[in-house]
Amino acid sequence: MVARTGLYAVLAANMAVVAYFFAQAGFASNALIVMGRLAGLYGALVMAFQLVLVARLPWLDRRIGMDRLTAWHRWTGFSLLWLLLAHVVFIAFGYAEGTGVGPVSQIIDLAETTEGVLRAIVAFGIILVVGAVSARYARRRLAYETWHFIHLYTYVAVVLAFTHQVAVGTSFASSSVATAYWYGVWGVALGSVFLGRLALPLWRNWRHQLRVTAVVHESDNVVSIHMTGKDLDRMPARAGQFFLWRFLTPDRWWQANPFSLSAAPDGRTLRLTAKAAGAGSAALRHVKVGTRVFAEGPYGAFTALHRTRPESVLIAGGVGVTPIRALLEEIEGHAVVIYRVATDRDAVLYDELRDLALVRGHEVHLVTGPAVPDKLAPAELLRMVPDIGDRDVFLCGPPPMMNAVLGSLRELDVPKPQIHFERFSLAG
User: Fold this and answer.
1) From the CB of residue 248, how many other CB atoms can be counted at a distance below 10 Å?
2) Whole-number Å distance between alpha carbons of 126 and 132
3) pLDDT digits (tens, 9 = 90+) for 138-158
4) Where does the record place a coiled coil (predicted)?
5) Interior CA angle at 87 toward 86 and 93, to 5°?
6) How are the residues of the chain apportioned to helix, strand and coil, as percentages rounded to the nearest 5?
7) Of 314, 295, 182, residue with least CA distance to 240
8) Which residues contact 31 (CB under 8 A, 6 or more apart)?
9) How far apart (Å, rounded) are the C-alpha atoms in residues 415 and 422?
10) Between the CA of residue 15 and those of 2, 61, 83, 171, 186, what are the distances in Å?
11) By CB distance 3.0 to 4.6 Å, which of 44, 45, 254, 422 could disulfide with 67?
């Protein structure tokens, strides 16, 4: 809550600063141009804020969670799209007013005669494409790898937009203080990306040097990868977190996929367990022992650090059991595990859950059967865990199941601070 409030406060303060420098620079006589310039400045600020959200900074990730940062990135992304659209439309009509040419012709003329405008048009086109593939309809139909690759072009748009602002931004050059402010904003944003997305992952992988030690086929379509490396006792990973994994083979080195740890880190080994749901996860079955691994992370706030109660409920659906399995190994106090699958054959890692529960004094409920009727409805949850309102609830599974369970928890009046979940989707 503190981190989230802090982020909003920083954004609001910067919006006020941008408005001040904009007013200090003076207003154009044309109201459309005034609105267009202000929309462009706020678009630049939101774009910088976007970079901080997806920089994967450990401080923010541990307190907020990568899924929530990604959700904010998504909505601020659409805000950015509308701000840039307003910037283009208002500027085009504003400059066209009184010239006798249309707005499209005016944009073409500006691109030909004004430094930085053509770069801005290219940047806007890239943002439009990224926005289109981020819409829910398109996102469901694109492979993760394709979507991620298209998202990488956003960095090209950022560079083009920044150089456009430097070249023609009246507010940018209105005073030395304004210039220093904007360089500072972009410096923090780009520096965050450099630190979180490049420097920190490179340093950690150089330090730990992960290698595959075993590939275990848990079922027909689920595989576990065991790894070891150097100084793993100094890796700041917790049960419930995930990494972006790259297996450095000739055909897969370029591809990163998010998978949770399926066992609590013990300072000597790491393990992930994945279901074949796409090309990347299916290829894990063919990884060889000894393969080098490049891991970005750990990420996620789905850990025992956020507990508010001494006792817990861990609810898993399908392969969403992997972070739940890891949490059960680390979590203190009495825990009730509810594992929802279609059939007994789908219950991967169930034997490990049962053995851990036996040793640590927890309960495990295996719930099988079709999706209808809902076997995790409020009455069913209350039957398995009568005191569920007094426990922390950790939830991971397919989105439809998670949405249904969250609805059940609301009906049971489980306080929101006691509900912990992550959807494990990443922005590029």
Assistant:
1) 15
2) 10
3) 777 777 667 777 888 888 888
4) none
5) 85
6) 55, 15, 30
7) 314
8) 94
9) 17
10) 20, 24, 13, 13, 14
11) 422
Residue 93, token pair as written in the block: 């009509």
pLDDT of the residue at 56: 86
Q: Determine the Cα–Cα distance for residues 53 and 76; give it in Å rounded to an integer.
A: 10
Report the phi/psi class of residue 385: left, alpha or beta, with left for phi > 0 and alpha for psi in -120 to 50. beta
Rg (CA), the chain: 25
Under 8 Å between Cβ of 221 and 244: no
40: exposed, middle or buried (Cβ count in 10 Å: 0-12, 13-18, 19+)? buried
Amino acid sitting at position 173 = A
- Structure token pair of residue 20: 């001040």
Percent of the chain with pLDDT over 70: 95
Omega of the bond leading into 373 within 30 degrees of 0 (cis): yes
**DSSP of 287-331:** PPTT-EEEEEEEE-S-SGGG--SSSEEEEEEGGGHHHHHHHHHH-
**For 249-262, what is each residue's pLDDT tens digit?**
888 888 888 899 99
